[in-house]
Amino acid sequence: MGTKTQPQLAKENERRIRANDKEFNAQFKYHNNYIKTSKYSLFTFLPFNLLEQFQRLANFYFLCLLVLQLIPAISSLTPVTTAIPLIGVLTLTAVKDAYDDIQRHISDSQVNNRKSKTLRNGKLVEAKWSEVQVGDVIRLDNNQFVAADTLLLSTSEPNGLCFIETAELDGETNLKAKQCLTETIELGDRHDLLWNFNGEIICERPNNLLNKFDGTLIWRGQRFALDNEKILLRGCVLRNTQWCYGVVVFAGVDTKLMQNSGKTQFKSTGVDRLLNFIIIGIVLFLVSICALFAIGCAIWEGLIGQHFQLYLPWEHIIPKDYIPTGATVIGLLVFFSYAIVLNTVVPISLYVSVEVIRFVQSFLINWDEEMYYPTTNTYAKARTTTLNEELGQIQYIFSDKTGTLTQNIMTFNKCSINGRSYGDVIDLRTGELVEITEQQTIFQNSNTNNRPSPTCGAIVAPPAAPPPIILVHKAEVHAKKSSLLVSSSGEAQVVPERPKSDDERPAPPLEAGEKRPGLKHVRYSAPSRSQDEDSGRLSPRVSGSRGLSPPIGNEERRSSGGFKRIGAGCMQRQLSRTSSCDKALQSVDFSANPHHESDFRWYDRSLLDAVRSDEEHSHVFFRLLALCHTVMAETVDGKLEYQAQSPDEAALVSAARNFGFVFRTRTPNSITIEVMGQTEEYELLNILDFNNVRKRMSVILRRGDSMVLYCKGADNVIYDRLHGGQEDLKARTQDHLNKFAGEGLRTLALAERRLTEQYYNDWRSRQQEAALSMDSREQKLNAIYEEIESEMQLVGVTAIEDKLQDGVPKSIANLQNAGIKIWVLTGDKQETAINIGYSCQLLTDELADVFIVDGNSVEEVEKQLRQFKESIKIYNRFRPGGFDAFDRLNSDSNMDPLSVTMTQTSAFMQETNLPPTPPPPPAISVVTFSAECNDLFGDEKGSDDGGTASIVVDENTGFALVVNGHSLVHCLSPELENKFLDIASQCKAVICCRVTPLQKALVVELIKRAKNAVTLAIGDGANDVSMIKAAHIGVGISGQEGLQAVLSSDYSIAQFRYLERLLLVHGRWSYYRMCKFLRYFFYKNFAFTLCHCWYSLFCGFSAQTVFDPMFISVYNLFYTSLPVLALGVFEQDVSDKNSLEFPRLYTPGLKSELFNIREFIYSVLHGAFTSLVLFLIPYGVYKDGVSANGFIVSDHMTLGAVVATILIVDNTAQISLYTSYWTVVNHVTIWGSLVWYFVLDYFYNYVIGGPYVGSLTQAMKDLTFWVTMLITVMALVAPVLAYKFYLLDVHPSLSDKIRQKSLKKIHSRASSDVRRTASSRRGRRSVRSGYAFAHQEGFGRLITSGKIMHKLPQDFAFPLGLGTKKTQVLHNNLNSADGPNSKTNNVTGQHMVNNNTNMRQNQNQNHSSMADITADGRGHGGDDGRGSGGSDDMSPRAPCQDLDTINL
After folding, report:
1. In Å, how far are 720, 834, 1391, 1403, 1411 from 1406, measured between CA atoms?
2. Global pTM?
3. CA distances from 197 to 179, 246, 1382 (A)
4. Residue 465 pLDDT > 70, yes or no?
5. CB 569 within 8 A of CB 553
6. Exposure of 1086 by Cβ count < 10 A (0-12 exposed, 13-18 middle, 19+ buried)?
7. Which among 573, 677, 671 has a CA at the least distance from the CA of 630?
């Protein structure tokens, strides 16, 4: 019994694993490493798939009908009419399901057949991933995926370190360090020792917590604690480590990667759910009609039918002895007969057509070249075919940040050194800022230059020698002055931003006649000037700035072979195809530096000139960047590579490297750099490492007799620690900080302090004493750090761009204009998340306030939410214009949405210091089409003159909400979720940071449940899988960040910007097409089916059909299926360009306006009216009709043939009026179906010998038929035409107006580019902090302890004893004490009114000299936005410009 209870106990409480012991591990029956995501096997497919299909109500309903039709006594139709369509639907669905499952099998096979090196019987053998078992020791090589969750045993690196990349788990590409137990390092790569390793691991049960692992290793009679730092998770990639060994802890479905995958939920669209509800209603309607007709039949048989039994004999099963009983039985049988006859109200072909339309629409998404990403050769892919129209109804988007909005690539973008800003380039011709984007194009000149120009036909002579390939960046033009001008000839010169100091005097302009040797020839897609550069001269020009397009006019274009004259007309045609954003600009050439990186881009040549001319301040700046960090350097294949804890640090060290300050190597007590080719070695005395509380890091260095402290950190933290007398420098630098923050860049302030030997020794002794203190160690260390990190000299500011994916701000703006709310759910910390929010324009400086929820308890969070709600109430009451402006908007019925654009485009071009034109608010008048403002334009009427509307709404006003992960736990609790939702629903944007994968899914579920909203989740890593599966639509980013999100998604795209097209074009079209299809389908089927109801009044409710049974069978299959399919596949109201240009076109889907109960009832009533007219007019004509030859034409078959023919003609006319977008397919299907009807009718009646043979032929010979058809069709079409013209003239929709404008060739430019361009954000200055540093804590502890080094401590250059055990312990204690900072931090803060912090203030109320500095002429009464650096730091917020005098 003991051996049986042990596994049971282990299963319930813990997991026991013994390395290299299969027998021991087998008793617990752990899962192997085999992965299975498929649903069926070859033998289970048919029964399981049929069972799944018949769980659908419609399929089961048609199966019951088929059974009824097999009973001759009640069926007036052959069973074939239902059997063939049902079998077709089941077959089509089965084929689709089989295809999807085969793809899953292929994917599973690829993963399971990956190779892994496993230790078996003391030898290393190659095994499949699926064969790896729990307890196996496996070997991983560099750049190899981890096969299963593994406990690290030994590595090729010293001290048991290894580096992994977790992109497939969380989308982050920066390396993370893992370290094995020191006791297992000795195992090395010796297979005998590894095979004899028999350690027993007791750990937690499988769970989905990626950042947590608790366990114990029992080995050699000792117990060792295990944590997440010693575990390699499946899906990670080993980097910069030659090899490592580990023992498998979790395998297969037990791995944390698969635990995060969760269960696949069945997803259906809102249209599907509405359709199911409607079908239930139709079935109830059908039952009631059948019951009514059954009662009518029983009464008729009892009163009249009994007397005609000679001609209409009762069936033998009908009792004839008692008439009421017989009539009742007949009525009961007729009930089922009518159920069969009228089943075409919901034909099974509806489901066939819906599946076909969705299937084709999925291929249209897959084939869209506009969503093709050439960099990774990736197309968009619809991984499901059942959710397309749901893309047109998205109300909430939940997005991950890293890898989804951003590339997780940091670039050194701009900087400020000694009060002078570097990094901006300006076009001298227009005075506009040339903003460099990431889109790069390789222009290569070959022999194509002698081809005729595509627009002008001129020939350009080829160059004498093959020109080099030049990497050219596109540039965007924005209205902003900066420090570098590009002249009309393509040259650049330095000019000041404004007269400030002697340091910023402009360099002399380049003379026009200056000769430039070394001409490079570049071929551009747009008219441009090819010029040269002199890379050897230190001139204040931008290398490669010649790529800008010349102004419109007769301009000479120079090439290496001659000149080419471009006419104004040709130039205008070319520029019409390329906007000002297509200008090309080359970066500075760093090739003179042997250590430069080819992918480093910098465009301001003046900074490189300053460095090369030995300008003191620039040297101090870059020397600080090269020395103050915790980056590790290594040489791989002769190339210097860096390993950083975060991409931020890597970007800064990389920038210093490219400017000639190359970090070469470090030891625990030294750091070596190379400055302009000269080696400099510094003694590393201390590292005061970075953490989230200190928000700064410092290094203390000695070289020769000089000693210096270099510090970098958040700007508010550094500013509070500067010595006096720097007011002018601080003011200018603060102005640059505000500008950088306004551009969404991540800023760090740099400072230095020169130390004396005596002061340092005294400080060092007190620091060691504090580090060894047993009580209040953290407080004492913080005080010691504060002491030396004070009285510093400001050096400058760095501005790093966390590179967004291309087009992210524009896409977010357009999606918000469409009325979609966007939430960002990220695992990053608060500062990083807020910074990205500003970068992608989810947050703007025009927001009234940014609320930050960071309470640690339910009471604190509730208090914050209550304060925020009060703030919103006050703002809504006192905002400029109050509610009167909205009342005026509602009352204005002459407003044309096409004309509601910016009142003055030149507002973007105004300087910030110019007086604003009245009325002051808003500064930039832009119309929003957000969900809250849709009702403002509900009853618009376009103005006749198309003039600009006088009332505009500022889209940027409002609030944003930032929630921390620990606070989100309380927000999602039952007692607070309603308050949280109330605040969040009134905010323009919501950002949740530090959230776990489970919290992401809970947020999505909350919105689905509480708001009943359609949600979309988009992500790229395994930590997004639960969110993707929880949302109605899951979108995976297929890129370099792994495939876990893609495998779990419904749609995959390569870049976030393609989401805009996926929703606004394909989603809107799919929803529009599906709704139009359903409306027409119900119309045509009610018009067809209800003819039987009217005929029942004349046939004694006998369930006699008015049509030929064969016509009933093929009506939906052959006669009317193709036109409505073409409508559902190709229909569009406006083009894809207009769909993107006018995002408000998306809003009908948000409100389900195109198909709902009201639209369904309208279609039913229209169909009922059509069926009534369709039956009564021919019935009245043919009731007592006689042909010209004297033949009686009032027979049943003639009437049925005539009504059927007019029905087909009417269907053709109606769908012709219904179609807005005509293609060849539409013409072929619509007119072809009409011809096809006559061909099939003739074939069936004359070739096969149908019962209605000759009926239609004889009727068509008489003029009566043609007149009857004309009158009937006109009576049916006229009301439809009248109603359409009425709507078009009196209540036109936005799409109607766009089509009218297009027909008149009046192109209204109200595109999203104008509404929310980068120019409107780049020109702003922000008083918020741009600080955002990615990592929690640097490698400082590992560096000073020597654990991360490749050398042993005794080999280091400086014999300071830092490698000894005693000082290692000291340093470890020092760094471990560097925890959360207390409120006694000697930091300063500014008084500010802030709703978010409940008017919190730091205990030290000393004001820095920056307290009185204002930006852009703003006061600091209510929107000074800078907290200080202690634990009570007030989080950055946007200024509330309109509420300066209101105490919130």
Report:
1. 9, 27, 10, 9, 10
2. 0.70
3. 18, 11, 46
4. no
5. no
6. buried
7. 671
* Structure tokens given for 1203: 């009504």
What are the backbone dihedrals phi and psi of residue 64, each rounded to the nearest 5 degrees, phi first? -65, -40
584: three-class secondary structure by DSSP: strand
Sheet order of strands, 243-250 included: 123-128, 115-120, 137-141, 243-250, 149-155, 231-232
Write the CA distances from 708 to 488, 702, 724, integer angstroms. Answer: 46, 7, 19
Tracing tokens 């509420």 back to the chain, one arrives at: 1443
CA distances from 422 to 120, 713, 888, 1318 (A): 60, 20, 47, 20
Which 3 state secondary structure label does DSSP give 1309? Answer: coil
* Cβ atoms of residues 936 and 890 within 8 Å: yes
SS3 897: coil
**Residue 400 among the catalytic residues:** yes
Q: Which of 149, 254, 400, 1020 is catalytic?
A: 400
Q: How many CB atoms lie within 10 A of CB 558?
A: 17
Interhelix angle 1068-1096/323-341, nearest 10 degrees: 150
Phi, psi (rounded to 5 degrees) for 1360? -90, 0
Task: Name the one residue in this structure whose structure tokens are 């948000």.
Answer: 1150
Sheet holding 1015-1019, edge to edge: 381-382, 1051-1053, 1033-1037, 1015-1019, 396-399, 821-825, 989-993, 959-964, 849-853
Tokens representing 758? 């005596």
What is the spatial distance between Cα 1162 and Cα 1079, in angstroms, rounded to a whole number?
A: 9
Do the beta carbons of residue 1264 and residue 1198 sit within 8 Å?
no
Residue 950 CB burial class (10 angstroms; 0-12, 13-18, ≥19): exposed
How many CB atoms within 10 Å of residue 161? 23
Structure tokens belonging to residue 244 = 């490592």
Interval 675-714: pLDDT, tens: 988 999 999 998 888 776 788 899 999 998 899 999 999 8
Give the pair of three-digit tokens for residue 505: 């005097």
Identity at 639, one-letter amino acid code: K
Query: How does DSSP classify residue 378?
Result: B
Any residues with CB less than 8 A from the CB of 583 and at least 6 apart, and which?
Answer: 434, 474, 475, 477, 526, 528, 547, 548, 549
Q: What is the pLDDT of residues 420-433, one digit of tens each?
A: 999 888 776 777 77
Cβ contacts of residue 908 below 8 Å, gap of 6+?
479, 924, 1317, 1319, 1320, 1323
**Which pLDDT value is given to residue 350?**
83
CB 567, CB 554: distance < 8 Å: yes
Question: If we measure between CA atoms, which residue out of 780, 816, 809 comes closest to residue 929?
Answer: 816
C-alpha angle with apex 702: 699 to 704, nearest 5 degrees?
160
Q: Taking 80 as the threshold, does the pLDDT of residue 1180 lie above it? A: yes
For 253-278, the pLDDT digits (tens) are 889 888 876 566 667 788 888 888 88
With contact defined as beta carbons under 8 Å apart, do 605 and 586 qualify? no
Amino acid at 934: N
Amino acid at 1211: N
CB 993 within 8 A of CB 1022: no
Question: What digits encode the pLDDT tens for the residues 733-752?
Answer: 999 988 888 777 888 999 99
Give the model's pLDDT for residue 909.
Answer: 34
Mean pLDDT of the 1377-1387 span: 41
Question: What are the φ and ψ backbone dihedral angles of 861, each rounded to 5 degrees?
Answer: -65, -40
Helix 1157-1182 and helix 270-303: axis angle, to 10°? 40
| Residue ranges in 1012-1101 assigned as alpha helix (H) | 1025-1030, 1044-1047, 1058-1061, 1068-1096
